[in-house]
Amino acid sequence: MRCCKKPFKTVAVLAGGIGEERPVSLQSGQNVYQALKKTDLDVRFADIHPDDLSILDDPDIDIFFLILHGQFGEDGHLQKILEEKNLVYTGSDSAASCLAFDKWAAKKRFHEQNIPTPPAVYVDAEADETELLEALAGLGGGRFVVKPLRQGSSVGVQLVRTAREAIQAARDCFRRFGDCMVERFIPGREITVGIVDQMVLPEIEIRPKRSFYDYQAKYVDDQTEFLFDTFPNARDVKCFQDTALKSFRALGCRHFGRVDMIVDAQGTPWVLEINTLPGFTSHSLLPMAAARAGLNLTQLCLKILETAWLDFQKWEQ
Fold this sequence. Notes:
By secondary structure, the protein is of the alpha+beta class. It has helices at residues 22-36, 77-84, 94-101, 103-112, 129-137, 163-177, 215-219, 234-250, 285-292, 297-316, and strands spanning 10-16, 42-48, 63-66, 120-123, 144-148, 158-160, 180-184, 189-196, 199-200, 204-207, 225-227, 256-263, 269-275. The strands form three sheets. Strands 8, 9, 10, 11, 12 and 13 form a six-stranded antiparallel beta sheet that branches. Strands 4-7-5-6 form a four-stranded antiparallel beta sheet, covered by helices on one side. A three-stranded parallel beta sheet has the order 2-1-3, with helices on one face. A hairpin with a 5-residue loop joins strand 12 and strand 13. The N and C termini lie close together (11 Å). The relative contact order is 0.15.
């Protein structure tokens, strides 16, 4: 591993990748790059993909700031390569990244830790329609959410009203993305809670104008509302924060991330997923929450770098 005894001076921002979220990753990467250019650090930008990993062999780079989304970047593959090369990087390690990226595996871990998460049915190529109908009836509720297991930014997610619609949507989802799941739709208020260096950031309530917070609502639709201080009960807010941090730790996440939840009518926060490399675009929520907590984008990026640097220093010792 490169020595962590000295302060880091040269940073490479890694963005791009090969997944459906590549355009978002490039936007995020440029924003991180421009934010860090305001410091006295030597900052490089690299559009990285499996066929070009040359930036990883640059001996002058002290630390890598990962801002890839989806396949190759958020699923643990790039993290594994960095670990094998003994390089210092930001974000969760390969094991936690892989676990968080697989929605079914993450959901199993949440169940093991008694963390509320919507019940779901696994769907693969061998799924039988009659068995699926029985399983979906056991979920309860009247609506369902169909999700690919290994995609981010709501890519491929569909909200349907009947079990038969869910089965058809799941088959379509499987053909495009592979294994998927059908989750019980939890009516309520969608919130997200960011975490940086084990510090829980202010929760944000998301109010999309569309039927749900899909890819368009996240990155294109300027009508989506992102609101602070919409839960006046301090006990509720503490519950959201505790659930977010417990979920983050349950998957072994580190440095920074974002926990997405639905709060039902009884005030229970149901964990949907954890984003181990959340976006840094103009629509992205972690920078919004950090700004609310008093950290501008440059300060946020530096905080993440410093957290990763110290973490690797402790590991080296």
